[in-house]
Amino acid sequence: MGWKEAAEPVLTRMPAVARPEGHVPFRRKLAWTAGILVMYFFLTNVTMFGLETQTASGDFYGQFRSILAGSAGSILQLGIGPIVTASIVLQLLGGADLLGLDTNDPRDQILYQGLQKLLVVVMICLTGLPMVFAGGFLPADQQVAQSLGVGVGGVKTIIFAQMFVGGILILFMDEIVSKWGVGSGVGLFIIAGVSQQLVAGLFSWSSLGGASGFFPTWIGIITGAVDIGSPLSPGGLSDIFLGQGQLLALFTTLLIFGIVVYAESVRVEIPLSHARVKGARGRFPVKLIYASVLPMILVRALQANIQFLGQILNNWTGLPAWLGQYSQGQVTGGLFYYLAPIQSRGDWMWFLGLTSQEPAQILVRVLVDLTFMVVGGAIFAVFWVETTGMGPESTAQQIQNSGMQIPGFRRNPQVIEKVMERYIPQVTIIGGALVGLLAVAANMLGTIGQVSGTGLLLTVSITYKLYEEIAEEQLMEMHPMMRQMFGN
Amino acid sequence: MSSGQNSGGLMSSAGLVRYFDAEDRNAIRLDPKSIVAFGLLFGVGILVLNSVAF
């Protein structure tokens, strides 16, 4: 029959983390979350065995690292990349309704979960194999190859095996946090990485080996240890705002924080009243960035995958000039150049001599990036809302099931759905486009610690959601009655 | 507001992967503690291998 019957034996047997039996106390949830976080940081510091260490070949993910988590050369090399890519495929299939899975049906839920896992495993192979075997992104150590007697191919297989285990571990760590902890693993890993970069960008000092952070630089500027031009000359001003002073980056970072926290509170509230209990009222909030920040990661990951494809093809077979020209691992021309997102000021500020590209080329690239992010953001936000059960139909059903109704309307899911349809699609599209615009603007202006605009947006909004979830958890801890109300 | 009989497995914050309540009887269930233990042992194992090889 259909694909469901054919795939059922495999999909239903995918290993899963056991669910907790009964209620998990809040403290234990926090402990699980913290434990997984520590494990994540530990694993990002374990270098893969058999990797040539002398040559720093750079990070294959490059600037995309901040949203894909993990760390270059470690066993978590792939980060959440496979999970994100698998999610893109599922969103596109689900959004276009090609799967034919009804997520309200327990049978289909099991299939959906299984399919998710299977896709992640497929993506681990699809991204991992070319990374190791095509091109020299992860060079194998000759010495290890000789002493083990397995040849370079054998060592590469060992490298891939470690990467594969790391990818699977990330998947299960996400599942543990989702089922036993607070929030989700994917969110946790993104905020962990971005926060680490932010803190380093603010406080790191030069004797640690990396670039000097914001505060140490300013202490240096004030005490005269860091040499900048006179603040009254154009050169000095440029140093303060764009160069070492990083005032523009600080401003952008704070602005993004402010906008996201503010936008979290922008919402259309639909009044509700209980059908039987008089006086029990509530509101259903349709938030401006209701569902739009997370789909952003999917748009960025799509761009990232396009760039990986370019790099791998280039390393493997070489590309014609109209497709892509590369110098030192950076794309400098051709189609792939125009498809590459603007990651920092260095990519576009031709007037400061930061890039040698023609202004017209840069303009095209910025426009392509903007279109990609704004249109892509809106489309993925709509798909996201549909596939995660936040669309008009499912929310109407939820409100109906909770015994609430919209005052002045008949108590009927179709009627509630009509009202929801006036708000949810519009708000979702506006929110998605807005977030896309913000991410591009933040990247162009630069942020503290070189966290990308998308990384910052994701981090602030995930942290905000986490805060809301923790508040809710605490409420339930204090009043066990609430637990029943929340249907836990 | 109650979420009612919604069995859709509410999204936790930023969950790219969705987990539902429904589980198949045939599915292999893993204990979270054993996953953590495996992960740590795997990491330590690689560290040891690295230090032996160089």
Automatic annotation (TrEMBL), chain A:
It is a multi-pass membrane protein. It holds the Pfam family Plug_translocon. GO terms for biological process: intracellular protein transmembrane transport; protein targeting. The chain crosses the membrane at residues 30-51, 71-94, 115-138, 150-173, 185-205, 240-263, 284-302, 322-341, 362-385, 423-445. GO terms for cellular component: endomembrane system; plasma membrane. Its main location: membrane. Keywords: Cell membrane, Membrane, Protein transport, Translocation, Transmembrane, Transmembrane helix, Transport. Gene3D superfamilies: SecY subunit domain (1.10.3370.10). It comes from the Archaea. It is found in: Cell membrane; Endomembrane system; Membrane. The keyword Transmembrane applies. Residues 40-73 form the Translocon Sec61/SecY plug domain. Component of the Sec protein translocase complex. Heterotrimer consisting of alpha (SecY), beta (SecG) and gamma (SecE) subunits. The heterotrimers can form oligomers, although 1 heterotrimer is thought to be able to translocate proteins. Interacts with the ribosome. May interact with SecDF, and other proteins may be involved. The central subunit of the protein translocation channel SecYEG. Consists of two halves formed by TMs 1-5 and 6-10. These two domains form a lateral gate at the front which open onto the bilayer between TMs 2 and 7, and are clamped together by SecE at the back. The channel is closed by both a pore ring composed of hydrophobic SecY resides and a short helix (helix 2A) on the extracellular side of the membrane which forms a plug. The plug probably moves laterally to allow the channel to open. The ring and the pore may move independently. PANTHER family: SECY/SEC61-ALPHA FAMILY MEMBER (PTHR10906). Belongs to the SecY/SEC61-alpha family. This is Protein translocase subunit SecY. It comes from Halogeometricum limi. The lineage of its organism: Archaea, Methanobacteriati, Methanobacteriota, Stenosarchaea group, Halobacteria.
TrEMBL record, chain B:
Its main location: membrane. GO terms for cellular component: plasma membrane. It is a single-pass membrane protein. GO terms for biological process: protein transport. Residues 1-31 are cytoplasmic. InterPro entries: Preprot_translocase_SecG, SecG/Sec61-beta/Sbh. Keywords: Cell membrane, Membrane, Protein transport, Translocation, Transmembrane, Transmembrane helix, Transport. It is found in: Cell membrane. It comes from the Archaea. The chain crosses the membrane at residues 35-53. Component of the protein translocase complex. Heterotrimer consisting of alpha (SecY), beta (SecG) and gamma (SecE) subunits. Can form oligomers of the heterotrimer. Belongs to the SEC61-beta family. NCBIfam families: PRK01253.1 (NF002318). Involved in protein export. The function of the beta subunit is unknown, but it may be involved in stabilization of the trimeric complex. This is Preprotein translocase subunit SecG.
